[in-house]
Design brief:
This protein is of the alpha/beta class and about 500 residues long. The protein has two domains: about 160 residues, Leucine Aminopeptidase, subunit E, domain 1 (3-Layer(aba) Sandwich), CATH 3.40.220.10; about 325 residues, Aminopeptidase (3-Layer(aba) Sandwich). The strands form four sheets. Strands 7, 8, 9, 10, 11, 14, 15, 16 and 18 form a nine-stranded mixed beta sheet that branches. It has a three-stranded parallel beta sheet with strand order 1-6-5. Helix 14 links the parallel strand 15 and strand 16.
């Protein structure tokens, strides 16, 4: 799919033109409309006065049997006073999903310049379909070849660069979705490491993969413990992009890479296990987030760490009651083998904090169903040990479109995960409430004094109805990482 800036006059000659309308507002304000032939203008005016109310979600077509214009599509935005940033994210997706459903191969539309980034990235996200395991239909898959974005002629040159940058972000989000959607049989720790190598090569990123013997030498008992039950050997993926000032402490990103999570001996029930090939979505986000940073040539030092394992039941699996010694020296008392994400992240966070001494460290993990229960389907949970950063982390989510909302890290929750025979328990010993907070509090014990944030992305692992995205992985985290990288110096200045 190619997205190109054109003048309003050029857009008015397209076969398919999309217009977005607020209630009780005239289409004549749209500059594309001003260049339409008179017969088209008159027909459209009559239609929206009699047939189209512009209610939010309403959409209708006007067909023209003669002339260059074949179809005008109207999209209702509802009341302008109720319009917001979240709806502006959905509008370009809505248009693209409609076009795919109708097999429209090209269309023209006008957006405000200040919405350009959101428009381009979201159009690419909406155009994605995971079809690699399906037989190709005779007529081919629906595909949009060209989208023409209309702007004043004087702005077009500068917009080409903007479109290119936002296209990169959209492509990397979709790359993340492609990885996360791949079935666990084809996306093992080894395959994830290979995918990371391919991505790093394309983007010019340094990569190193630690093998089982390397992790044993480092004392990564958390990663090795979870991996024991699988025939697939664990991998520890290290990505480095160092293009910032020499004195800049790196931003360290840690992504959970459980390529399939059965729950281990605490086996998951049927209705939860089906999508557990996506339990490596945090790792996929880190791989493609850093790839986007590199392709955008952002002036930043950033490191990605992905502990990659399978959590499988077998005669060699780690067991409830086991005690695992982590790289930090702390021991973990295993109460539930399905709380494996925090166990592997304990080693990754410690490795990141001690080896790289980051200015800021962020982990992204599909960690808990409790976060999903707390927040529903539309944002991730964010925790931080630096409360001064909370508002900045929320703002990064708003600007990127990967929304987050804070939950507390109060010390009272630490009592729930104190071990009886080990230093820490990997699950709460009391009631089932506050599970997301307990998981975050557990992770906090492995970051030393590093400024740190934990993103529990489980609520946003998959797309939901109303988001105008294909079913499956949402690619959450990639846009957040890019926006965080762009604002990293400013955020760190505030923290200090």
């Amino acid at each position: 799919m190619r997205i190109s800036p054109v003048t309003h006059r050029e857009a008015a000659r397209a076969k398919n033109i999309f217009f977005a309308l607020f209630r009780k507002e005239s289409l004549e304000k749209d500059e594309i409309f001003s260049y339409l032939p008179a017969e088209n203008k008159n027909a459209i005016k009559k239609f929206w006065q009699e047939e189209f109310k512009a209610e939010y979600g309403e959409t209708k077509s006007i067909w023209f049997p003669k002339g260059p214009i074949k179809r005008i599509r109207l999209f209702g935005l509802g009341e302008r006073a109720k319009w917001n940033e979240r709806k502006s994210q959905l509008l370009p997706r809505w248009m693209v999903r409609y076009a795919l459903g109708e097999r429209v191969t090209e269309f023209a539309v006008a957006f405000r310049e200040d919405a350009m980034g959101r428009v381009v990235t979201n159009m690419h996200m909406a155009h994605f379909e995971f079809n690699k395991y399906k037989e190709r239909p005779k007529e081919g898959w629906p595909e949009i070849k060209n989208i023409f974005l209309a702007f004043p002629g004087k702005e077009i040159t500068s917009l080409r660069k903007k479109i290119g940058e936002e296209t990169i972000v959209g492509e990397e989000v979709n790359g993340c979705r492609d990885l996360s959607n791949t079935p666990g049989g084809d996306m093992t720790p080894q395959k994830l490491a290979e995918a990371a190598k391919a991505s790093a090569k394309r983007a010019g990123i340094k990569i190193k993969v630690l093998e089982e013997k390397d992790m044993r030498r480092l004392g990564m008992g958390g990663v090795l413990g979870v991996a024991k039950g699988s025939d697939e050997k664990p991998k520890f993926i290290i990505l480095e992009y160092m293009r910032g000032p020499k004195d800049q402490k790196p931003l360290v990103l840690v992504g959970k890479g459980v390529t399939f999570d059965t729950g281990g001996l605490n086996l998951k029930p049927d209705n939860y296990i089906y999508e557990m090939h996506m339990d490596m979505s945090g790792g996929a986000a880190v791989i493609h987030g850093i790839s986007a940073i590199a392709r955008l040539k952002l002036p930043i030092n950033v490191v990605g760490l992905i502990p990659a394992v399978e959590n499988m039941p077998s005669g060699s699996s780690y067991r409830p009651g086991d005690l695992l010694k982590t790289m930090s020296g702390k021991t973990i008392e295993v109460l539930n083998t399905d709380a494996e994400g925090r166990v592997i992240l304990s080693d990754a966070l410690w490795y990141g904090a001690t080896k790289y001494k980051p200015g800021f460290m962020v982990d992204l993990a599909t960690l808990t169903g409790a976060a999903h229960v707390a927040l529903g389907n539309y944002c991730s949970a964010v925790f931080t040990n630096k409360e001064v950063l909370t508002e900045k982390l929320i703002e990064v989510g708003k600007k990127s479109g990967d929304y987050v909302w804070p939950l507390p890290l109060w010390d009272e929750y630490l009592t729930e995960i104190k071990g009886t025979f080990g230093d820490l328990a990997n699950a709460g010993k009391g009631d089932r409430y506050g599970g997301a907070i307990q998981g975050a509090k557990f992770l906090e014990q492995f970051v030393k004094n590093t400024p740190w944030a934990h993103l529990d992305i489980a609520p946003k692992m998959t797309s939901v109805e109303g988001e105008y995205l294909a079913k499956g992985a949402s690619g959450v985290g990639v846009r957040y990482i890019v926006e965080l990288a762009k604002n990293y110096p400013r955020i760190m200045n505030q923290e200090s």
